[in-house]
Design goal:
Elements (H helix, E strand, L loop, with lengths): L27 H15 L6 E5 L13 E7 L2 H12 L4 E3 L8 E8 L2 E10 L3 H15 L1 H17 L4 H16 L6
Parallel strand pairs: 2-5
Antiparallel strand pairs: 1-2, 3-4, 4-5
Length: 184
């Protein structure tokens, strides 16, 4: 069974306090591929799909330098089986961004800063599908990508020392995007 995560999502806190937003990083795809390989190797076949999601998965989008991975499993039992295997890769369980039993979240720090976040989710759930739709929409639409980059820069300035508020502002923007009828 998984460990109980903290009630406040500490993956949004930075050791120095201030949010860092950077331009597209050429190493993000390589970081994703390396961690994807590690997760597949460790998962003993229970993880069936791993996708690069979040801002680092969208070329041309500004982002915090944190690589997000979406790992898909078939059942809640598979989530339980994989939990300790992910923790064994130096990930720490944290509270998910939404109260949803179909997703668990883990962060991986390097030298005190979070560098990777894994969202372990049952496939064919609203969370899993929404994460992929958001990513694909931003990849395909330069207008949405530019608008989201502008929003992230503004939010990072507004909430420079409150990463949780920054994350909540982004969540509102993403929920609005998901309500667009023609979104993939």
């Amino acid at each position: 069974m998984s460990r109980t995560p903290d009630s406040r999502d500490s993956s949004y806190e930075t050791p120095l306090g201030k949010l860092v937003i950077v331009n597209d990083g050429p190493f993000w795809v390589q970081e994703f591929e390396q961690m994807r390989s590690c997760l597949f190797d460790a998962s003993q076949g229970f993880i069936h799909r791993i996708d690069h999601i979040g801002s680092t998965s969208v070329p041309g989008l500004v982002a915090r330098p944190i690589v997000d991975l979406l790992a898909g499993v078939r059942s809640a039992e598979d989530m339980d089986r994989v939990d300790s295997l992910i923790i064994g890769l130096n990930y720490l369980p944290i509270a998910p961004p939404v109260a949803d039993s179909s997703v668990r979240v883990y962060r991986r720090p390097r030298h005190g800063e979070v560098t990777h976040v894994v969202y372990l989710a049952k496939r064919d759930t609203p969370f899993f599908d929404s994460a992929l739709r958001l990513r694909d929409s931003l990849r395909l639409s330069p207008v949405r990508r530019s608008s989201y980059s502008d929003f992230k820069r503004m939010s990072a300035e507004t909430f420079a020392f409150d990463a949780l508020a920054y994350a909540e502002a982004k969540a509102v923007w993403m929920r609005a995007l998901l309500r667009i009828p023609d979104l993939l």
